Amino acid sequence: MKKGLVKSVALLAASAFGVAGLSMAPAQADVRSTVIINETTAMSSLNSGTPDTNLVTNTDIGSLTGFGFYYYNDKAALVKNTKFGSYKITKNTTGDFEVTYTVAKGKVWSDGTPINADDLLLSLVLSSSDYSKKAGLGNPDTDTPAFNSGGYGGTVDNHVNANAYDISDDGMSVTVTYDSYQPDWQVLGPGPAPVHALVLMAAGKKTLQKTSVNISAKGKFEDAFYAAVDTEAADPDGYDADTTAWAKGLMAKIGNIWSNKYNITNINSSTNPLLLISNGGFIVQSAVDSQSVILGRNAKYNSGPALATSNPINSVVFKFVADGAPAAQALANGDIDIYDGQPSTAVYQQLKGISGATTVVAPTMTFEHVDLRVGVSNSLTDAQAAVGGSTYTGPFAGNSQKAIDLRKAFLLALPRQDIANKEVLQIFDPGSTANATVLNSSFLLPAQKAYATLIKSSGIAALTTGTQAQRTAQALALVKKYYPSASASNSVVDITMTFKNNSRRIDENALIAAEEAKAGFNVSRTPDAGWSSHLNYNSSDVFMFAWSPSAIAQTGTNANFLSDGSNNHYGWNYPAMDTALHALETDSTDAAVNAHILAAEKIINANALTAPLYQWPQVISYNKSLQGVLPAPLTPNIVWNYFAWHY
Amino acid sequence: MLAFIGRRISIALLILFGSSFIAYNLEAYAGDPLAGLAESTAPNKGYLIATLTRELQLDVPPPARYFLWLKGVLGFLTGHFDLGMSRDASPVISQMATAIPVTLRLVTGATFTAIVLGITIGIISAIRQYSRLDYVMTFISFLLFSLPVFWVAVLLKQYLAIGFNDFLGHTDANGNPQASIPVEWIIGISAILGVVFAGFVSGTRNRVLITWAATFVLFSAMLFGISSTNWLLNPQLSIVGVGIMSIGVAVGLTYVLTGFENRGALKAGLTTAGIAIVSYYPFQFLAGPSTNAFMILGLGLVSMAIAFAVGWFYVKVDRGPVIRVSMFTALFAGFFMLVDRIMQSWNGYFNSDAINRRPIPTIGDSNPLLMSNDFWIQTLDGITHVALPTMALTLISFAGYVRYARGSLLEVLNMDYIRTARAKGLGERQVILRHAMRNAMIPLTTLIAFDIAGILGGAIITESVFGWKGMGTLFRNAIGNQDLNLFMGGLVLTSFLAVMANLAADLLYSALDPRIRIGKK
């Protein structure tokens, strides 16, 4: 800038600036201590528990700032986090099933507040609509409740009531009472939440408080938790109308904070630190809306496996970058350290070509499958019937020998290996001639122990024996039984297929249509953008999409195959299947569980209801000097073992 | 006039209504917001679907739901403007409020650079029609015009970010970073630049060869200097560089705007450059780490005032061109000083932990790890992030301006009044600067008005390729996630601006060109 010398001197004299120069000393570290992770969507909330904020990025960040009684490892197996505490069944009689969760002594939140059973209580509020209703927090079935949790309506909700949580005398254990045995009891239990922070925020506090204040806030929460659902009828001695009114008011206030106040995307020194309290290895330090979130070490962390000590990670950064070439180039440039996504061929090759990065392909929990309609859906609405018809009269309708044979023929001619090769291997490496792993069970994944035994006798062998050409020939023979004019060049059975309008499904549909044509089926080729709301349409015979389970649950597949199951859109109705699946809900030994799954799979294959195809692949590419990264199929995927990372 | 504006606004409202209604329904029918949940096997899937249906009012058919949405938008009449909530439960307005500044930072610079650069080159190639320069420019602009932005972006990232960072990250045997350019690169770059510059000159073969040789030698020497002093690791212009460049600008501007025969302009320009050189060291003192943008702006205004005074005092008649020379010289000199000051922060920035000796990023609009309150470091960080996307956007969009400006000026230059101007003995400089150029720019107002209105629409592809979360990314995500309210928020803003730009262009047109009268039947 040009200016008169006199003016400059005058300005200089008036200014309070010190000597001009660099304020930033070079701070080149010998070893990196930062991990930058790519996420394709931005963080929208620090609380991933509401229906609107239950998104991958929110969950991933949450997994670094919170540790409960268990986690899933890279083999999708449940690992007990014994550092935090323990849990066991304490009562298992007919109509009475109790599990006790005990927090280990000495565990603390990042503000130093001891963790105890009070911190587990919130879980009931978030999953029991009975509690919500009785505490005057709103009926989740009809309206948005005070705690707008995504946890209502599930297994816990169906089997616990508002008084299900009983706290022990020493204040370290919670006993959960269910109305019946729960096979998935391990994953239904409570997790810790910093209730003192909620109480303090409800009182308008905006700074971290002394431990004594925090402890009394926890006590307040415990009082309110029980008093809010207290009634004179149930507790004539202890009931106090004023206390209950106070408790309901406090819980409603807390509900509002829990539902809304955590939805922040800009975090800096003016953010209420009570929102950031963590018991995970890291704590959120700052965030810029739509750009990034930075987490630093939680100095007081002792709730989970110890963090790696040699060349440790001191900060974890989530950067929000679109998938694809930008992410690959960002990795090559060191803008990110870990990429986790589903890249195209070109981007995969680009990732492979980065000299400083390791690239691996691993299966996810999400699996592709093809379902065949047998009858009318148990949840068909009038509107859907108006479009798709109120009865199903397609070639696969009913359980006559003809319908079963045609369904079997369709599944036999399904080119499952080709599809898996294309979507698992060739999608990344077009020249690949290797065979991808085809999924052969609707209940278990290849990584699970019982899988290998199961598929030997489940009847799926019919779809895996021989070559595809041989199976298609068998299929054609079956079709010819009923349609003598059918041939490889004359498709006589018209099949309507419903699938999404994305390239994956369009490719798969093309492969299927080509192979099915050789067996006499004429498969429709039109994708459907609104496929998910058309699953009940009787006008469609075949449905292709993916299931993406978020947990490994013993009863997780029941909804798909029970005659009244919410995911059973196809009129599958087999009493023996219902018996086997209901037995899954009560049995606990591995042998019994595997026997029931086998029984169900046999029915599926004997009636040719569905065929699993393959598990979606995910690609992980990360900075070569970063150690300990292991892809995992379940949420929170790549960050599950952040504690083991180091350079 | 008022009636005209009134009529146009009512038509605009109708268009907005129609387009938003159609877009709303198209988007609503194009996909299913519940699709993600359909694949879930969660035990409480039914509850989640019911909740989402309630929140998004999916039980109302889209044509009717549009009016529920419109009710919120029309709320501005009563002071309760509401664009609804996006799917992640945050208000659409607040999401747009975060995205707009990001987009402005990205697209504004590129748009104005493209306009200035494009029009300048267009004018030069029109003046030198069918010269070698014209052909070179036409070739380059068509080449760039035809490139897709995502490809340009990928190339820029590969070579100017990843490649350049790798180059800068090299260390010598002692582990010290070094940035020496290989000799073959020096020769290659200089030779290519020579060809470019030789392409600019017209004349005999000898003249072209001499230009090439001179350029080659000059750039070789410069690059050799840059290489041998590791200038790229510790860049600065210093008082010498700022001085030489300011004087060069003063001389150059005098030549272009007035000609050397105007001694007053030359003296004013050189005096201003001199003052700039004198104030180099005082500026270093003033521009400490805690400088802020207002101070820079203040210094800029002071210097412009001084430059104005210098121009004013040097001549008594026809002051305009002289003041212009003086003020432009001050502007450039100030710019050089800023560049020099920012360069001085480079080494600290480059070696900081957050940058880790890879200064040019491929994504994002700032480095979240950079914890510095130093104004210059922050500015530098902004520049390293904005550089590549701005370059990509400018490269692909300036070609259009080149073609328009060239065509428009050529058309004007063939008009009778230009012949008259020449016939009455006006110099070529005056004919072009005063008579031709002003009229030639009128048709460009429409283009510029639309492009400026289009800034807020964001650059969908560029933003997503460079990981910027502006309006373009917001819009793209909204479509991808079936986020109807968010989608409509973006659409309303862009269509409103488009309609308004149309109106503004018409009004500007009539203001600029007295032959056009609007509103008269």
Please supply descriptive tags for the structure shown above.
heterodimer, A: 647 residues, alpha+beta, Dipeptide-binding Protein, domain 3, five-stranded mixed beta sheet, B: 521 residues
Description:
The complex is a heterodimer of chains A (647) and B (521). Chain A has 647 residues and is α+β, with helices and mostly antiparallel strands. Chain A has helices spanning 5-14, 56-65, 122-127, 129-134, 155-159, 185-188, 195-202, 211-227, 241-261, 325-332, 345-352, 382-388, 401-412, 416-426, 451-457, 468-482, 503-517, 558-561, 575-584, 590-606, and strands spanning 34-39, 70-72, 78-80, 85-93, 96-103, 165-167, 173-178, 282-288, 292-297, 315-320, 338-341, 357-372, 493-495, 497-498, 521-523, 542-547, 610-623. Among the domains of chain A are: 67-261, Alpha-Beta Complex (Dipeptide-binding Protein, domain 1); 367-615, Roll (Dipeptide-binding Protein, domain 3). Chain A is built from 20 helices and 17 strands. The model of chain B has no long low-confidence stretch (mean pLDDT 87). The longest helix of chain B is centred in the last third of the chain and has 39 residues, at 375-413. Chain B is built from 22 helices and no strands. With 521 residues, chain B is an all-alpha fold. Classes of the chains: A alpha+beta (647), B mainly alpha (521). At the A-B interface, helix 1, strand 10, helix 10 and strand 16 of A face helix 2, helix 3, helix 5, helix 7 and helix 11 of B.
Largest interface: A-B, 91 and 95 residues
Structural class category of chain B: mainly alpha
Helix content of chain A: 25-40%
Specify the oligomeric state: heterodimer
User: Mind telling me the CATH superfamily name of the domain at 367-615 in chain A?
Assistant: Dipeptide-binding Protein, Domain 3
The H/E string of chain B reads HHHHHHHHHHHHHHHHHHHHHH
Proportion of residues in β-strands of chain B: under 5%
Mind telling me the C-alpha Rg of chain B?
28 Å
Measure the end-to-end span of chain A. Answer: 46 Å
Residue windows where pLDDT falls under 50 for at least 5 positions of chain A? 1-29
CATH fold node name of the domain at 367-615 in chain A: Dipeptide-binding Protein, domain 3
Number of strands of chain A: 17
What is the overall shape of chain A?
A: globular
Question: What is the radius of gyration of chain A?
Answer: 29 Å
